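Sample entry was shown:

___
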Amino acid sequence: MKELWIEPSKQNFTSDFINQYCDAIIKDDKITFVTLNQEHTILSVTVENFETLDVTGKILRICISDKATENLIVKAAEKGASYLLISTANWRVIPLENLIARIKGKSKLIAEVTNAEEAKVALETLELGTEGVLLKTAHLEEIMRTVAIVKPEALKLEMVVAKIVSTKPIGNGARVCVDTCDLMSHGEGMLIGSQSAGLFLVEAEVNENPYVASRPFRVNAGSLSMYTLGNMQTTRYLQEFKAGDEMVIVSREGKTRKANVGRIKIEIRPLILLEAKVGGKIVKTILQNAETIRVVTPKGSKPVTELGVGDAVIVHLAAMGGRHFGVSVPDETVIEK
């Protein structure tokens, strides 16, 4: 499992937040490992002072600026350093490739990054990637974007069972098909809903049938005005997505992972309104009215054309309140019907 360390440049995050998402936090050249509740000193290493240091079992911080410093890191691994925190002065990818190839299994490599995109590169370099990343930021949103890459299992959504109270064909409308750059399996898809506070789990086209081939990369997602998750903090309208955008794949158990949109296809199709009740609340969604569009249920999935009153479906309930360009505003009064 990859590790996420953070070094806040301004904001102090709560202990609950750190315990939930981070393996370690750095302050003033001291590192605290969260789960172990242990504090260690970080040694800043240069070519000049290396020979005077006992690095066995220590955590070293080194900047790669040339081949000499790259070789220094290899020597530190051979001498038994436990962790090597690596930053780069110029080139980023090639030095990491060299280090991963030369010291994998000897010491743990942690790459310093400033955003989620850099974290993704570090974790995928030479296919094996570093053992983790050290994120230097003051922004909560950037931390959550990086969590989604480093520890997607930590971003599990709460999924609940709702009961269908009404299904209503509503005629033709613009339907959005989301073709992703990934493959999905049974029980996976996208969260789609008329209200941001209640989203149905619509399954990808993973099921075989006698009339059309399965499309496990596709979610036939629903009316263009439906909400879905843009990321773990914001919603987007389906109509807003385009090729290259990130989207969130969700499983029946609430596990999440990121994928990229390959293309968006909007067509005029017959639609159906689904209404379900959970905890005294009514949630709604509008999907294409066809046999290949399935919503996820507690034990499988079911075509929208076969849903009836009392059927159980899986939904995600988010915070109540308003949204401002997709960002939750919990205290705003909003009535959705």
Q: What stands out?
A: The chain has five helices and 22 strands.
